[in-house]
Fold these 3 entries.
Entry 1:
Amino acid sequence: MSEQLAYAILTPHSLLRSRTGGIITRLVARTGVDLVGARMFAPSPELVEEYAASIVSKADPQEDRIQTLLRQYVLDQFSPDSAGRRKRVMMLLFHGEDAVAKVRKVVGQFSLGKRGGQSIRDTYGDLIMDEDGSVRYFEPAVFASPTVEEADQKLKIWLKYSESDGGVLENVVAYEPGEKPERTLVLLKPDNFKFASGRPGNMIDFFSRTGLFIVGIKLHRMSVAQALEFYGPVREILRTKLRGVVAAKATAVLEKALGFAIPAPEAEKLGELLCPAFGEDQFENIVEFMSGRRPSQCPLEEREIPGTEKCIALVYDGIDAVAKIRDVLGPTDPTKAPPGSIRREFGSNVMVNAAHASDSPENAQRELKIVNVGDNHLRRVAEAFYAKP
């Protein structure tokens, strides 16, 4: 076995029907390979034609008729609609030993007259035949290549168009006249990626309740500089607004150690004295959690380097997007989050609380600029892999 790059392409129908989370859950949890890149595409006619032409292959174990159906599906369903509006497609990139075969196995393949129950296509795909053998309905759910050579060839087609057709998508969702959609940022935090699990996909399933549309996705490793800017607004709050908390903690410790009750005025002074240092330490903890390094231990010349901690950044588009996402996410403290919210289900404490979401349209714009979801990280990862001797 060898280190390989493999891709999975989620179809427009899978995205539209909010099957994204379930598909990602299976790909991450069942393949045993590392998710290293993600990007949204709005395929141009040129990309559609070139990719469709590569679909039918002697290396693919699926019947010729199935391959022909797949090729026609790409031509029909990946192409812009009758109004010229492009469709949304998501590409996920995986790396690891025997990655192509592992991803393909989890995705599955169609076979005329046979039906299993284990693969993504078994669950989310459909091939409905009439009695005369004609196809009534066909939905493959996900595309993945059968061999390393096929994966390399087809991935390079998508990479060629990854700048022009990919990124944070514009004009891919139709709204009624007078409707004013918003965009908001979601970060699935590093605690969801300590080991391969269904957590990231499960949380995306929760967000799908909002009826909003994913228009951007990026696998992101936040640098110290980005974390400092991103969380900068809470720094002064931590340094100044926690006097009561700090006073109570310090008083309890000192009273136990010294054996006498500390009067309220002195306890208040303890809070005023220690709060800035306590708040700064809390802020450093947040930056370290998100980037992998404490600012005080990171030389200035290294602060722009991508961190060691993995996130998934998502851009959601729709009416009242900020409020809808925040409602599903729940309050910062998971212990105060209502049942059925993401932070109640997946959070541990106010820092390790599963996900971040912008709290206002203005902050969404600021945060989206910092994280830069449209950055073509997927292409850089692939080009670095193919550049290896």
Note: The chain has two domains: 3-222+310-387, 227-302.
Entry 2:
Amino acid sequence: MLIHGLQKMTLVDYPGKVAAILFTGACNFRCPFCQNAALVLHPDTEEVIPEDDIFSYLRKRKGLLDGVVITGGEPTLASDLLDYIKRIKDIGYSVKLDTNGYRPDVMAVAVESGVDYIAMDIKNSLDKYPETAGISNFDPSLIERSIEYLAEDRVPYEFRTTVMHELHDEESFRKIAYMARNCKNYYLQSYSDAGDIINPIFSAPSAEELEAYSAILRTYIENVFIRDR
């Protein structure tokens, strides 16, 4: 698996864990608000961190780090994802996988293979997914299958939505709330411009909008949080 970025420590990306983050390249979405534009659009031009360097670092930091987050891009596109997860777990780490949920079968096999935590992005209500995910041939059943699978509590998980003033409204979240009605943990995070955006035309919602969306989600969902990015 090609790793294009390593964040050596995070206290916020893996709930309850001190973790490192590994960034893969390539994605099956083209979300216009994506903050990893280079990894998504031109992964072949990005530096690759040697595998030996990554595993050497992880072995040396054992005892100081608890977990490893695999994010992207979209990690489920990597053909050797499961092998990579096994190697990380063999060192003794807990593994969190970030995914857009568009490859439910791969996600399920990853869980069955020992992934300890899944964070799945829900981009928007299904009718707004093509615009929000930046793809035209969108299959809503793949997102629905992933949501249903995680809602069965096979592994600790969270759903999360990055909220933009231009792409989300109360009707969006009424539909999202019903779609994810059986889930336990849902996070809203405000859009921010980190400097490597595919199409930097968006703006953050107001605090009042975020609170209103949270209230809508809580009509169906047990735990809803607003997360600082």
Note: The chain has one domain: 3-163.
Entry 3:
Amino acid sequence: MLITMLNTEVQEPAWRARCRGVVAKLVLLIHRGLAVVGLLVAVLVFLLWLQPQWLLPSEQHLAAWLRERNVLMAWWPENTAERATAVHLNDLPPPQALVANWLARKYRVAPEPLAALVAEAHVLAKSSKVPAHLILAVIATESSFHPYVQSHAGAQGLMQVMTGVHAQRYEAYGGRLAAFDPLTNLRVGVAVLSDAIKMRGGSLEDGLKFYLGGYALTEDGGYVAKVLAEKERLDAVAAGQRVPAD
């Protein structure tokens, strides 16, 4: 009995020392982890301070991530206006605002969605080298700016892209149903049109014919002339000239 008590007295300090060592290591790990988290938060705040335009996309991505996991509560309602394909005319440069307003009156579409399409057409024009007003003229001729139009041949959306033929182009946007999203259809349509123009040696006329019917097309039925005439009207509108919308 005495030997056991002596052994316990000897062993107990060692056991306590091991526990204290484990606890100390855990505290150190937690402290370092919190320090890393704090550093990451500080870096994120600093980056958002340097680039404030990143704040809204970051909030949208976070909201989408939480919404997908059913985390959002009633106190954080979805702001559907953020998903709307529309901008105020005042947010556009004056020539673009003139074009958007003219197209809205001519095709009887709300000016704010037209403003978003006009702005996107100018963005795509820089990367595709296809004139913005030619892009808008194609939309006007193909769909009169109605995003849900579908032809008997299967052409869909604003630019009447043959979704079955160009299905792979829509994969990056979530699949074929993205053809009815106005901006997605616009981006895919411009890519198809740009390729058509390049394949026809840079000729806008021949590129438009190819966009309309490919190699099999023999007669365009006045399509190219109609598109180019609309482009000329848009050029005049952007220059501040009075062009009848009727």
Note: The chain has two domains: 2-81, 89-238.
